[in-house]
Fold each of these.
Amino acid sequence: MKALTLWNPWAALVAWGYKTIETRCWETSYRGHIAIHAAARKSGQLRRIAQALPCVTEYGEGYDPVLHGITADYDRLAFGSVVAVGELVTCFQFTESIKYRLSDFELAIGDYTPGRFAWVLDNVRPLSVPVPAKGYQRVWNWTPPDDVDVSLHPTNREAVEDAMYWGMLHEPKE
């Protein structure tokens, strides 16, 4: 299956469903089942970023213990491991015209500079146990061990339709 490596805390945020859009400076034509890999390297800068994230849900409903665990316990996150599986449902170039569709939390945890690409993820679920693996740049191939369940739940049709809508929005060309 295909895999994508992300730095923590972003890999953990994707695994636990707090981050549904990964931003990159390049696009991909790949759509489908994808493993989320947490990069092996830790850094003080990323630790500070993790600790600065608000420990509330994107809807502002108050303290969230899972999010708190991701932000406060950076060194205890899984590194150098596949941490989740999901679906990459679309990829499109980000424009200012769709910024209003994103939550404040999503905007805070991604680089939504115009011209970057939004990779929309759906049906992401954390693996019951992180699987150690060497990560790579770009989309890469990962063979899950036979005893690891990488199955997904049925696709959330509304999320796919939203993703398709986002991908069709373009700012006027000058």
Amino acid sequence: MINWESWFEAAGVDPVTFRKGARFTDPMLCLESAIAGHGVMLAWQLLAADALADGRLVAPFGVRVDSGLREAILSQLFNWYKEDFGSSREAVLGFIAKYRPDGVLLRQGRWKISYFEYDWGINEVQ
């Protein structure tokens, strides 16, 4: 997993001591806080790609560190209807890669695929 020490080493700079502030265990909350201008974060490329692509978030130093995580967490829909996406894990990742600004990453190395629980509530009539 990536940490600030690894990032400073990859950047080739001496570490700094951060002021105390909010800390998050949920990466989406951290991302939204960074987008709102409340601080900085270390983010997975796949998590931050859309915000980076549309300018809501910037990577000011261009430093990237490979976390080695290589896990794509997808909707159960990709599991239930995998035949529609090509059946194999590579085909599913290739399908998703076509629509991601950082899609080339999904074609590099071996990725683990996990599925989050589907929220049936989105199908309810309001």
Amino acid sequence: MRIWKWPSLYKKGHKILFSGSAPLAPCIKDHQQAFKTFLLQHPEEQWCFGDLDFTDDGITVAHTVVNQNAMAVSDGLYKKGWGTAAWILVGDMTDQSIQGAVFVSGDTEEQDSYRSEVTGLFCILVAVT
């Protein structure tokens, strides 16, 4: 029995929409391991976690991710040739969080606000998978 939906991409007015779903499959092997240590053990994705702020070393939020109760938000900005993104992942209690901020890579010609927005979303996905 399939518990996910095939992704779909369609145009609505001047917007392009993407939808789909799948269960979250966390890969935290050792729940006692600090979440920050877990995030930084993958060198190819460390750029996503250049500026991190944790409460309780990320343990509470990591448990919330495993229990599929976490919430996340991101925001991106493009101004004067530079792109940035910030994101936050919160657990059951809003005082427990992991926050990150990154510069968006790419040449000036490749930068725009959409790239910054998607970078924030990508960082969240890397953090929870």
